[in-house]
Design brief:
Elements lengths: L11 E4 L2 E4 H17 L7 E5 L4 H12 L3 E4 L6 H10 L4 E5 L3 H7 L6 E4 L3 H6 L14 H6 L14 E4 L9 E4 L4 H14 L7 E4 L6 H13 L2 E4 L5 H11 L3 E4 L1 H9 L2 H4 L9 E4 L6 H11 L3 E7 L3 E7 H6 L3 E5 L4 E5 L12 E6 L7 E3 L3 H6 L9 E9 L4 E7 L4 E3 L2 E3 L1 H9 L4 E11 L3 E10 L7 H9 L10 E5 L12 H9 L7
Parallel strand pairs: 1-10, 3-4, 3-5, 5-6, 9-10, 9-11, 11-12, 12-13, 24-25
Antiparallel strand pairs: 1-2, 7-8, 8-18, 13-14, 14-15, 15-20, 16-17, 17-19, 19-20, 21-22, 23-24
Helix pairs in contact: 1-2, 3-4, 7-8, 10-12
Length: about 525
């Protein structure tokens, strides 16, 4: 283990043993901007970034912004069809890609689009278990290419429009296009970020999730604009996360519940080996957090957990701190500032507190308006009938008397069995409390009598012997009988990406081949 080191005297950006101070990072960004300008990139254009987490990711994003263009973070896990779709759909004028990802990129890239090659940093290669491939020599190398250009003399003032693609967990990735933001609104956004994420100016943040997702991408952009000290993880590893928190005195981080599960899975003696007292704010979102997992995290770290609900399209809308959550277990918070939440019934009527329906949210006034690239109808379909400015992210839930929101599940994951609504997230949380279950996916499968029946696919600890009967008995002892999965399948690993998003459709679709889908 590396010896402990005090936090850097001046804020920097680091990843896997490599560190760049802000002066160097911003100089590199300004040179990349000039290079992009000479390739014809200007306001409104898009630049694809097919990179793992590393400082170059932030430099390229900042460079594009100086021209009024926007970086498009691309999920480098995408298979050929989705990769082709994103690179074509985004209309990216230039692509930056890590050396080992170039074959996949160039195989689907539209003809004539310039490529800049970015060698995989040695530390990133080690963290990701990759051999460090030699440069191909077929494209300009980033470090050489940027030194051939002087820093951009006159950056644009307005923050450009941004594009972030959905993960494709429920279908083809969609590009969320946000309108440009002026300097004043950007300053307000930075101030709001520091307040709600509870990080002090000049503070130290850790980003453990991939930058191709909306939340970590926005986190990094605002942290950079705020001048925070930023530590990036190339990939999430539970013990490495603890080591980084101790080594760099991390004060704030943003995570997903899957990361909590992996941290709690570490032996107690490993967790107690690290000093985590610097942590004052652990923000989480993006997926339901089983109550027993959140209780365990608060018991371990103290009341530093902060949760929000929102999406790529809306930003954070509701917030709750640990005290609020402990008083109202299961809530994802209450609308803050100029945000608002409404729950609507099937006829578009506003439902009273306690009634479950589709959740609609109104983003903050300063949040940029959005549309979907090439899909204006998809944007219109999200809007609430009779409630201007409200949109749905596809979730079901209810509000309590005090305006706190509780989510039931995704609308697309709702199972209707014999006319009864069943919310898989509740059953998944129950299954995760069973000793030996590491991960769980519950969904509906065809059933001739009831329309749909429940199936549970489980990732289990090989040291714990589980049977389907034991799994069903565990659920039956805690939930209603109709929530007990009829089918139980044990998997070596469930299909999640690095941010913890579950590709449930990959498990569900084979069951529905030849049956169609109700949802």
């Amino acid at each position: 283990m590396e010896p402990a080191a005090p936090p850097a005297a001046a804020p920097a950006v680091r990843c896997a043993g490599h560190e760049r101070g802000y002066p160097e990072l911003l100089d590199r960004a300004a040179r990349i901007a000039t290079g992009l300008s000479e390739l014809g990139v200007g306001p409104g254009d898009r630049v694809a970034v097919v990179l793992r987490n590393e400082p170059a990711h932030l430099e390229i994003t900042a460079a594009a912004a100086q021209l009024g263009a926007c970086a498009v973070p691309v999920n480098w896990h995408f298979h050929q069809d989705d990769l082709r779709h994103v690179l074509t759909d985004s209309g990216s004028a230039v692509v930056f890609a890590h050396t080992d990802l170039l074959p996949a990129v160039t195989a689907v890239l539209p003809e004539g689009v310039p490529v800049v090659e970015v060698p995989v940093p040695p530390g990133v290669a080690v963290a990701c278990g990759l051999p460090a491939p030699p440069a191909t020599g077929r494209h300009p190398l980033l470090d050489t290419w940027l030194t051939e250009h002087p820093p951009l003399a006159r950056p644009v003032e307005d923050r450009p429009p941004t594009v972030i693609y959905s993960s494709g967990t429920t279908g083809r990735p969609k590009g969320v296009l946000r309108e440009p933001v002026g300097p004043e609104r950007l300053a307000e956004a930075v101030a709001g970020f520091l307040e709600y994420f509870a990080v002090p100016p000049g503070g130290r943040t850790l980003i453990p999730a991939p930058l191709y997702h909306a939340a970590p991408s926005q986190h990094a952009a605002l942290a950079l604009a705020a001048g925070l000290d930023i530590t990036l993880m190339p990939r999430f590893d539970a013990e490495e996360f603890l080591r980084l928190v101790e080594r760099y005195g991390i004060q704030q981080t943003q995570m997903v519940p899957t990361m909590f599960v992996r941290l709690l899975r570490l032996p107690k003696e490993v967790r107690e080996r690290y000093d985590l007292s610097s942590l004052t704010s652990v923000v989480h979102a993006a997926a339901p957090c089983p109550p027993h997992i959140k209780h365990a995290m608060i018991d371990w770290l103290g009341p530093v957990l902060r949760e929000y609900y929102g999406g790529s399209e809306t930003g954070a809308v509701t917030w709750c701190d640990s005290a609020e959550w402990l008083a109202r277990p299961g809530t994802v918070g209450r609308a803050q500032g100029t945000c608002a939440v409404a729950v609507l019934g099937p006829e578009g009527q506003v439902l009273p507190p306690g009634a479950t329906g589709e959740v609609y949210v109104r983003p903050a006034d300063l949040w940029p308006r959005f549309s979907y690239l090439g899909h204006p109808d998809a944007r219109a379909a999200m809007e609430a009938p009779g409630l201007p400015g409200y949109v749905t992210l596809g979730d079901l839930g209810h509000l309590d008397e005090d305006g706190y929101l509780y989510l039931s599940d995704r609308r697309a994951d709702l199972v209707i069995s014999g006319g009864v609504n069943i919310y898989p997230a509740e059953i998944e949380g129950c299954l995760l409390a069973l000793d030996g279950v590491r991960d769980a996916a519950v969904f509906g499968v065809p059933d001739e009598e009831y329309g749909e029946a429940l199936a549970a696919h489980l990732e289990t600890d090989p040291r714990v012997r589980l049977t389907a009967a034991a799994v069903r008995a565990h659920v039956a002892g805690r939930l209603a009988g109709y929530k007990v999965p009829r089918t139980v399948v044990f998997e070596e690993r469930l299909p999640r990406d690095e941010s913890g998003k579950l590709f449930k459709r990959r498990l569900r679709d084979p069951y529905w081949d030849g049956h169609g889908r109700r949802i």
